[in-house]
């Protein structure tokens, strides 16, 4: 029998990516119990997609070791977020004074982010990822979506330094300046966070998978080329539901400045929900067994802040607790996912 194509999709959400790490860590631990004590999650998916913080996680999961297997465990990614998050999102008192609330310039300096990305990824190139990926960004010069795909990076036109890919996908407007990067061929791009159009990149991942010859790229004859939706297992992970209400009275006579923050919040949430709706309906057209191969893992934030840049120790603790609460409430489903990943390895 042919093996299904296993797709992992990771939403954007800044420091809330900690919740994603906690959930993925549990799945990885189940893989270690059921299949291999040294299992790493990156080896159990055939395509990984990510936007913004999800793009950073994608890059960590697909980082190769000397045997072209996954180098990092999910725990390593979680440590990276918990330990380096504060230095990435830190804003000095002086920056607060000259740029209150990010009204005049981007809210966060990109220097710390670029320094951390260089330390983690060095000169790693996109083409060296262990599996196909799709990492989103948006080209504000050409006014079109830009997808970074490792399986198409054999050409220098489509090959980039991973540190630059991560800088581009995480360049969230009002938080970081746009990323000006070059391909290894020398073509220059001015890019911002892919979350502006695909904060939940699961539908983009589905579309990308449809055009990939997986048996050739993965060197596995049992993998399906150009899979249809009934040939896919999609695991889509969110960074926490945001339920901040906006009343008519508050926005009855609101101007542009008052709308900026809420509008960004609404657009990001609306995209996440719409993609989930489309995929749910697509899988409902399949038979009873294949209908169950789409998983949308969206935890509640509980006591954690919905802000993408709140790196206080208290909030990091609450994000971890929110992830643990979701794991505790969904142990059977997460174990079921692990079993399907192993079965289609």
Automatic annotation (TrEMBL):
Stretches assigned to the PNPLA domain: 8-206
Name of this protein: Patatin
Pfam family membership, one: Patatin
Active-site residues, as the UniProt record annotates them: 52 (nucleophile), 193 (proton acceptor)
Position of sequence motif GXSXG: 50-54
Signal peptide location: none
Motif (GXGXXG): 12-17
Renumbered ranges of motif DGA/G: 193-195
Homology family: Belongs to the patatin family.
Keywords linked to the UniProt accession: Hydrolase, Lipid degradation, Lipid metabolism
Entry annotated with the keyword Lipid metabolism: yes
Annotated GO biological process: lipid catabolic process
MF terms (GO), sorted A to Z: monoacylglycerol lipase activity; phospholipase activity
């Amino acid at each position: 029998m042919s093996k299904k194509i296993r797709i992992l999709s990771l939403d954007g959400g800044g420091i809330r990516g900690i919740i994603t790490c906690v959930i993925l860590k549990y799945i990885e631990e189940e893989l270690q119990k059921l299949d291999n004590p040294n299992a790493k999650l990156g080896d159990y998916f055939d395509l990984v997609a990510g936007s913004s913080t999800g793009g950073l996680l994608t890059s960590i999961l697909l980082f190769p070791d000397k045997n072209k297997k996954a180098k990092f465990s999910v725990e390593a990614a979680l440590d990276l977020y918990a330990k380096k998050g504060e230095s990435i999102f830190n804003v000095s008192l002086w920056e607060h004074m000259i740029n209150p609330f990010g009204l005049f310039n981007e809210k966060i300096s990109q220097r710390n982010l670029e320094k951390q990305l260089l330390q983690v990824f060095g000169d790693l190139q996109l083409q060296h990822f262990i599996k196909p990926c799709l990492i989103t960004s948006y080209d504000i010069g050409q006014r079109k979506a830009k997808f970074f795909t490792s399986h198409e990076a054999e050409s220098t036109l489509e090959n980039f330094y991973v540190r630059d890919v991560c800088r581009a996908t995480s360049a969230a407007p009002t938080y970081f300046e746009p990323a000006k990067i070059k391909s290894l061929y020398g073509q220059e791009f001015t890019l911002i966070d892919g979350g502006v159009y695909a904060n939940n990149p699961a539908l983009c991942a589905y579309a990308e998978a449809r055009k990939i010859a997986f048996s050739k790229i993965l060197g596995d004859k049992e993998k399906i080329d150009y899979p249809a939706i009934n040939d896919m297992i999609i695991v889509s992970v969110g960074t926490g539901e945001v339920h901040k209400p906006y009343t008519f009275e508050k926005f009855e006579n609101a101007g542009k400045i008052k709308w900026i923050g809420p509008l960004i919040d609404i657009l990001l949430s609306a995209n996440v929900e719409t993609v989930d709706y489309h995929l749910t309906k697509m899988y409902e057209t399949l038979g009873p067994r294949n209908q169950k191969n789409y998983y949308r893992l969206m935890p509640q934030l509980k006591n954690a802040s919905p802000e993408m840049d709140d790196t206080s120790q208290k909030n990091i603790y609450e994000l971890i607790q929110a992830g643990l609460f979701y794991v505790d409430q969904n142990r059977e489903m997460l174990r079921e996912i692990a079993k399907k990943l192993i079965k289609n390895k």
